[in-house]
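In the design runs reported in the main text, the only information available to the sequence generator was the tokenized backbone. The following block is the verbatim input for one such run; it is reproduced so that readers can re-run the procedure and compare outputs position by position.
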């Protein structure tokens, strides 16, 4: 896929992975629109990269989603929808069967899964109308093997992975020209996980891998340790589960 000249909408683009993606897409000659809940982060992003277009919008909010579509349409539309925004609410002390976990679980599902389906549906006809267009859904290494202290986050990403595969096949069958990419990151070095001492990769490396995969039309893009966990889970599932959860179990019990 040729990214030069494309207009790309990145949700959660005010910082971290989303902002790094905006930077690298701009360097390739794309036009980039970012969204996020924090006005201060969006303002800072525009100062750093003046050609960015920033729209304040909550990825999990239905009203915001439709308002975002209207604003993007006024700007001329998009070629690529990059569903980057995501949230994680780990339960305390490995607790799952309690009200705190249920509240966090609803939030994770709304943003990480249902919100993405909503945005894809809203923008689908616009994307179909383009000569070459794409959707990027960000799942996770935890869509392959679940984390015991992030059960619903893992479940939301697994649901998104199955949905992404189904959406890709559906669009192929009906002859739509919308490519559907799945990005599977390992743990990425962002503010969200700054307090964790697990192995991490940089946002820069992740996005370079994403762009390389898109340019080669690799629809499933596994980065870093995600490749190894994918293979281990197929051959040695207990080993894969242990590799994902060894440190998480110890960390969770200390909370």
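Verbatim output:
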């Amino acid at each position: 896929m040729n990214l030069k000249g494309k207009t790309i909408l990145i949700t959660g683009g005010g910082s971290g992975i989303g902002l790094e993606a905006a930077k690298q897409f701009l360097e390739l000659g794309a036009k980039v629109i970012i969204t996020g809940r924090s006005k201060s982060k969006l303002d800072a992003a525009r100062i750093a990269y003046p050609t960015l277009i920033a729209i304040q919008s909550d990825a999990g909010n239905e009203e915001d989603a439709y308002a975002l579509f209207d604003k993007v349409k006024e700007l001329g539309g998009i070629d690529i929808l990059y569903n980057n925004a995501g949230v994680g609410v780990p339960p305390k002390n490995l607790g799952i069967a309690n009200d705190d976990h249920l509240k966090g679980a609803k939030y994770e599902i709304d943003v990480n899964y249902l919100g993405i389906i909503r945005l894809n549906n809203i923008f689908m006809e616009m994307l179909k109308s383009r000569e070459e267009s794409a959707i990027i859904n960000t799942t996770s290494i935890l869509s392959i093997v679940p984390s015991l202290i992030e059960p619903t986050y893992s479940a939301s990403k697994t649901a998104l992975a199955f949905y992404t595969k189904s959406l890709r096949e559906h669009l192929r069958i009906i002859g739509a020209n919308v490519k559907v990419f799945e990005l599977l990151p390992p743990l990425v070095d962002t503010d969200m996980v700054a307090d964790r001492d697990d192995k991490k990769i940089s946002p820069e490396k992740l996005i370079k891998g994403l762009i390389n995969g898109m340019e080669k039309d690799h629809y499933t893009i596994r980065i870093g340790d995600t490749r190894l966990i994918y293979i281990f889970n197929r051959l040695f599932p207990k080993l894969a589960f242990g590799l994902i959860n060894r440190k998480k179990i110890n960390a969770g019990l200390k909370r």
